[in-house]
Amino acid sequence: MNGAVIIGDRVRGRADLLDRAARLASAMAAAGVGAGDAVALLLRNDFAVLEANLAVRKLDAYGVPINWHWHGAEIGYVLRDAAPRLLIGHADLLDGIRDEIPDDLPVIAVGGTGERQDYDGWIAAHPPYAGNGNGLGSSMVYTSGTTGKPKAVKRLPATGEESAQRARLLSVIHDTAPGNVALVTGPLYHLFSQAILMATFGAGGTVAVMERFDPEECLRLIQKHGVTHSALVPTLFVRLLRLPEEVKARYDLSTLRHVVHSGAPCAPEVKRAMLNWWGPVLYETYGSTETGVVTKISPEEWLARPGSVGRPVLTGEVCIRDEGGQWAGPGLTGDVYLRIHGTPDFTFHGDPAKRAAVEHDGLITCGDMGWLDEEGYLFLCDRRVDMVISGGVNIYPAEVEAALLEHPGVGDCAVFGVPDPEFGEALVAHVQADATLTPDAVKAFLRGRIAGYKVPRHVVVGHALPREETGKIMKRRLRENFLANAPA
């Protein structure tokens, strides 16, 4: 089974997957896909994701993974903006956006029957593609921002050495080796999940893919397949930790060696609880869609420096830029700039000016703020767009959220700013808890842990917070709801 991909009860071996990917490349080429062209992928977690990514690389083309949780209009925007040569999607997802698909865009359907070309039949009708590309194929990823339309991060054509450096980076981040057995827990339209799939398969390992995350099913698959490696976002840790103790004790997790977490901040008490349960196997990484992963921290390093996201790996570099535009020394907070030198560069599709705006001295900022200690370990404060300036004082919501999560009755939380006539901005805390926890009790709890000016003026106690599949809270939606319902 080494080199296979497993999804539920379905298994495809390495040779079969490579053959199908080569035939898919031929089919794409026959449909007019060439170097530099885009292929849109509206796919759930399925073999087609791996096959399509391998195929576009053979053609030096770009895969454009689309978040299928988006509304039809959002998907339609991507299909128009990316101008793909081809759209491959699951049949039911395509049915849901029928009116958003451009009339002249060829569509290939995975599963289902009807007027569209069937994916499996299309592949079978073509011989394997003879070429292997020049290493220029990559991805064009639309990331949801806090405002405006999704932005497309597009990798520039890579040299041979840049491609090799990218491969070395993935090997370091995910500790790849031929005998690894990896578990994919998140959606494959997100690069965090896609990276461990591609890296493990590329190194000759076996990959089990969850179609949707379920905490007990995750434990069952780790035991069943002898999983050694995985990648999870912190919100999945919380769901795992909430399992009854008898369920946790039911499964043997001793094969785990290397579990990467990233994508959102992880509360220190959550990470400690996971380390106590799973052992010293949790490795945290930090980067962005634009830069790729730049820092990594081992469990032992994190326990010595709780809250850090690590030091740069390989040719990575991290610097802090202060409000005056100068590079700041250790202990000083500012905008985080970073980069892995020698890997493929990027641009924002159709917006080179935006690309130039995020660069300084060859380093890139993705909007986070933080500081470095004397040994070069990076600590994050918050995103600049989330930072609240109340009465002229900078407040970082992430610090308040970490304090809130120490309350045993708080299951989840989000803190954000809203306009305030007196202070410019005021803090709002949306807390997931039952009705017995009152806003006044929340404020009293916080006053014993953080400075008074950081205690939110408004506290909303409610139900589950809206999160993306990657674990990021949709603060924009919470802010809009609060303002819509705030008293005049």
UniProtKB/TrEMBL annotation:
Belongs to the ATP-dependent AMP-binding enzyme family. InterPro entries: AMP-bd_C, AMP-bd_C_sf, AMP-binding_CS, AMP-dep_synth/lig_dom, ANL_N_sf. Gene3D superfamilies: 3.30.300.30, N-terminal domain of ligase-like. One of its GO terms (biological process) is fatty acid metabolic process. Keywords: Ligase. One of its GO terms (molecular function) is o-succinylbenzoate-CoA ligase activity. This is O-succinylbenzoate--CoA ligase. SUPFAM superfamilies: Acetyl-CoA synthetase-like. Its EC number is 6.2.1.26. The lineage of its organism: Bacteria, Pseudomonadati, Pseudomonadota, Alphaproteobacteria, Sphingomonadales. The keyword Ligase applies. Residues 399-472 form the AMP-binding enzyme C-terminal domain. PANTHER family: ACYL-COA SYNTHETASE, MEDIUM-CHAIN ACYL-COA LIGASE ACSF2, MITOCHONDRIAL. Residues 15-339 form the AMP-dependent synthetase/ligase domain. It comes from Sphingobium chlorophenolicum L-1.
